[in-house]
Amino acid sequence: MERQQWGNRGAFVLAAIGSAAGLGNIWRFPYIVYQNGGGAFLIPYFIAILTAGLPLLILEFSMGQKNQLGAPGAMASVKKKFGKIGWWTVLSAFIIVTYYAVIMGWSIVYLVDSFTGTWIDTGVQEYFYENVLQLSSGPGDLGGFSIPVLLGVILTWILIYFILRKGTESVGKVVWFTVLAPIGLLVVLIVRAVTLPGAMSGLNYFLQPDFSRLLDYHVWIDAYSQVFFTLSLGMGIMFAYASYQPKDSDITNNALITVLANTSISFMSGIAVFGTLGYMSVTQGVPISEVATSGIGLAFEVFPTAIKLLPGGPAVVTTIGVIFFLTLLTLGIDSAFSLVESNITAFVDKFKWDKRKVTLWVIVVLGIVSLLFTTKGGLYWLDIIDHYINNYGLVLGGILEAIVIGWYYYPEKLRSYVNSVSEYRIGKWWNTMIKYIVPIILTIFLIYNFIGDITKPYGDYALRYQWLGGWGMLIALLIVVTLLNKIGNRNIIEVTNTDQALEEN
Ligand code: PFF
User: pTM of the prediction?
Assistant: First the structure.
């Protein structure tokens, strides 16, 4: 069967932007900037984009597009055994989306309860931990399902199924909404935020430059990791999406648009978040440092609390509440389904199964695994698994991709392909980034986290949980990766040794 293609260039670019712009933009970026020198953080941030984010994005786009295959197939085209690296990234995406979908589920619960006023009338913390999560005493105590979360998650999977059902055809339509809607919603949140008293002091905290922070290497590690995560790299997504592009499509221009749009969405989120936090700090008489936070706490505790303080009565609170949770949902859903598509593409490519059936089955299996996170102890597992898969799964995938292309495939070959199809040509600097800079920086990041985790187990969970949800999970992943690569490559005769590959061009 002929490979599906995006109906037009806009659909592809929007899908890539949709994947990149997700929860990380709204709940991680603003806090990272605030913590790492405010406006001064722009320097490491843009350096990280130029030296690692953009080069890797171009690598993933071009490998997917050139080979017309998702990550495992594209990597295996260099050498069969490198297919494992592709599978590793795809399975990292698999793990991530099992809990990313659950966070979407919480957002749906909050959204519905915005209309009924439930979280508005009770204390937000109480609502989140007792009504929604019904949190148990620890990871060893799963305590049955939280029904609201379960329902929200089921709805999320149904939504994702219908979006992915017709592949690029349905995704290409949906992204016009899931990318543009959150931008519009963010504009509303920004206008509301900056017209509140105290908003400017909040923005000051967000952006006031402190250049002395740039001497601290943690700031640089944060910049590189933020850029890496925000661009959805090391997850097989950009390979998969680009593999549905015609072989002669522009690459560098599309990569630049993706990066710029994603960065803009991050800044818009920062203004909305810190404007609102500034107001909260003024009305409650507490310093910004006490309300500024990131992650789940920001989205499901602090921000809703701030919304409750808004002037104008219940109608305003409800409206802004609905807008905020719609923003989370629309921002997140296209990241979630891109993580699923990375898997679907990989299985269809390697096993030649029917795409419709694969879509259904991948989602059913993902749905079953995600049940773990809908239990009352789910939040603990989410926390542990998220830590390990992000810091080891994704980062390792990124390092290995760069090493394979940099040292086995020759970046020059890929660069000449990119330049033969693209409006903006990339210079030799790209080869240097892929060969040296990306692997070195990501390896530093990996080692840094590893030392941190062995000296102080993550989150103070008992060692057996670190093993089960962390190291054990990663080892299990490695075994599955090896198996999948073996089975998937059964019918493939290795054609590309380096010389032949060179001739090919
Ligand atoms: N880029 C998306 C985000 O920032 O939310 C998707 C994503 C990337 C999710 C990396 C999770 C992750 F670890």
Answer: 0.95
